[in-house]
Amino acid sequence: MPLTSKDLLKKSQMRRTYRKFLPEKVDMEVIKDCILTAGTAPNGANKQPWHFSIITNEELKKKIREKAEEIEKDFYENKISKEWKADLEKLTLSYEKPFLTEAPCLIGIFKENYVKLPDGTIDKNYYPNESIGIAIGFLINALRNAGYVSLTYTPSPMLFLKEILNRPEGEQPVMILVVGKPNPTYELPKITKKSFEEIADIID
């Protein structure tokens, strides 16, 4: 039986972003199902311009963390504005990203701008930005429904992820989705969501 809109709203309001994870391994069959659910997202001309790299290898996670922290340290020390830094301090964030090695699973998410065919011609995709954004939303909700929590992590620049995972030239990394079971010791920041009137209007 499908959830009512009120039930879905209640469940969605319970979704929170975690930055501490238990070491418990993920169920790979569940993760695969969640990825396939993301693959049902609407997209330009049904070109399905996305790729998901599921990473559970400890050495690879360590390599990703080291490179990410190098980039983040430079960002926090040299690039971030005072206003941005003040906003991030409310969430108790820093350049250190232990969740990248603590979490049992990372999903490297790539948008596919084009595919280079064997004969050298370029097969272009349409609306890759919009398509990958919708797919990520599907994936996050599927993971939540499966009992996992996730963290959307977007270090900038992120080309190191493409190099580490050896992805083809037509792809561009857009996110590392950190996935696992929530660590109950993590103190969730106190946040509120905007009301309906603040995010929408009805034009009759």
Short summary of the structure?
The protein has 204 residues and is of the alpha+beta class. The protein is 41% helix and 17% strand.
Commentary on this structure:
The protein has 204 residues and is α+β, with helices and mostly antiparallel strands. The chain has a single domain, classed as NADH Oxidase, CATH 3.40.109. The protein is built from 8 helices and 6 strands. Strands 1-2-6-5 form a 4-stranded antiparallel beta sheet, with helices on both faces. Strands 3-4 form a two-stranded antiparallel ribbon. Strand 3 (114-116) and strand 4 (122-124) form a beta hairpin. Helix 2 (28-38) packs antiparallel against helix 6. The protein is globular, with a radius of gyration of 18 Å. The two termini are 31 Å apart. The relative contact order is 0.22.
What are the defining features of this structure?
NADH Oxidase, 204 residues, alpha+beta, globular, four-stranded antiparallel beta sheet
Tell me which CATH architecture applies here: 3-Layer(aba) Sandwich
CATH class annotation: Alpha Beta
Q: Provide a count of the helices.
A: 8
Alpha carbon gyration radius:
18 Å
- The CATH superfamily title: NADH Oxidase
Number of domains: 1
Oligomer designation: single chain
- Please describe the biggest sheet, giving its number of strands, its sense, and whether it closes into a barrel: 4 strands, antiparallel
SSE string, helix = H, strand = E? HHEHHHEEEHEHEH
- For this structure, the CATH topology is NADH Oxidase
Low-confidence stretches: none
How big a fraction of the residues is strand?
Answer: 15-25%
Considering DSSP H and I runs of 4 or more, what fraction of the residues is helical?
40-55%
